[in-house]
């Protein structure tokens, strides 16, 4: 039975999952060049930040959907649940649904999950989604038939506000040889933001830029000769799955082992 992994940034799958060797090594899934019928169609065909890919293990499909922006989560979730409702007998259905998103402010995060749970209610899902825990639930479809589904929510990083880049930097800091450089990379950006009036407002103006910047500084210091290579190659060159921060973040997916 297919699974859905909705994520609003392509970077997650690029560093941890989209590498065929890594996902095959960790979970035994192999990349499928051709999407199965159940795979969702992109919300916007020409949105470069949105992507859908699939991995297969025996009769199981793992479908990863980078939905192309925080505002697209609700549309994507409705599309997945509608697929379950109308095509479960012909194309199969999503038995496990995980949503991974940034850990914004407490107010924003609470609002986000309330909106997702409202959609679950609209589609007659019996349980609400919870953080870092698979919740067994059912979805009522036509003719009073119920599908067994499992729901999971992950906010990244798990223990603080921020985004995936925050978690990656925390993971790099676990290496004693890199702890000092991580701290200094954070300090550089903090100092720039504290003295923002001294440089152009076009830099570090958005929340996303402020979160991404310390990681960019870290890579600029540690591997300056690779600063201008493809970002995918840079991120894939690190064995993220060996870092405790990353392992803890993806621990719920041990059910696939």
Uncertain regions spanning at least 5 consecutive residues: 8-20
Taking the sheet with the most strands, its summary is: 7 strands, mixed
Number of helices: 9
| Distance, first to last CA | 16 Å
Task: Sketch the topology as an H/E string, one letter per element.
Answer: EHHEEEHEHEEHHHHH
Q: What structural category characterises the helix and strand content?
A: alpha/beta
Cα-based radius of gyration, to the nearest Å: 19 Å
Mean pLDDT: 83
Helical proportion, percent range:
40-55%
Strand content: 15-25%
Number of strands: 7
Shape: globular
Strand order of the largest sheet: 2-3-4-1-5-7-6
Compact summary:
This protein is of the alpha/beta class and about 260 residues long. Helix content is about 40%, strand content about 20%. It has a 7-stranded mixed beta sheet.
Describe the structure.
The structure is a single chain. With 257 residues, this protein is α/β, with parallel strands linked by helices. The protein has nine helices and seven strands. The chain has helices at 11-17, 20-27, 73-91, 106-122, 164-172, 176-194, 207-222, 231-236, 244-249; strands spanning 3-7, 30-32, 50-57, 60-67, 96-102, 135-140, 146-156. The protein has a seven-stranded mixed sheet. β3 and β4 form a beta hairpin. It is globular. The two termini are 16 Å apart. The relative contact order is 0.13. Residues 8-20 have low confidence and may be disordered.
Sum up the structure in keywords.
257 residues; alpha/beta; 7-stranded mixed β-sheet; 7 strands; globular
């Amino acid at each position: 039975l297919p699974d859905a992994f909705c994520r609003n940034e392509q970077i997650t799958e690029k560093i941890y999952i989209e590498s065929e060797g890594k996902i095959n090594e960790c979970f035994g899934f192999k990349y499928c060049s051709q999407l199965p019928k159940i795979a969702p169609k992109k919300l916007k065909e020409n949105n470069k930040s949105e992507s859908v890919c699939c991995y297969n293990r025996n009769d199981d499909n793992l479908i990863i959907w980078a939905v192309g922006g925080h505002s697209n989560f609700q549309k994507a979730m409705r599309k997945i649940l509608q697929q379950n409702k109308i095509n479960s007998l012909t194309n199969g259905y999503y038995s496990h649904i995980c949503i991974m998103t940034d850990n914004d402010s407490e107010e924003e995060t609470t609002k986000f999950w309330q909106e997702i749970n409202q959609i679950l209610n609209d589609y007659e899902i019996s349980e609400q989604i919870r953080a870092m825990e698979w919740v067994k639930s059912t979805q009522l479809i036509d003719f009073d038939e119920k599908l067994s589904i499992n729901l999971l929510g992950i906010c990244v990083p798990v223990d603080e506000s921020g985004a995936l880049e925050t978690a990656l930097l925390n993971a790099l800091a676990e290496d004693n040889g890199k702890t000092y450089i991580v701290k200094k990379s954070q300090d550089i950006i903090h100092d720039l933001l504290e003295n923002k009036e001294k440089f152009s407002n076009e830099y570090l103006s958005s929340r996303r830029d402020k979160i991404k910047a310390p990681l960019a500084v870290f890579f600029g210091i540690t591997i300056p000769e690779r600063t201008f290579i493809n970002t995918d190659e840079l991120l894939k060159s690190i064995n993220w799955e060996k870092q405790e921060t990353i392992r803890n973040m993806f621990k719920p997916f041990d059910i696939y082992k």
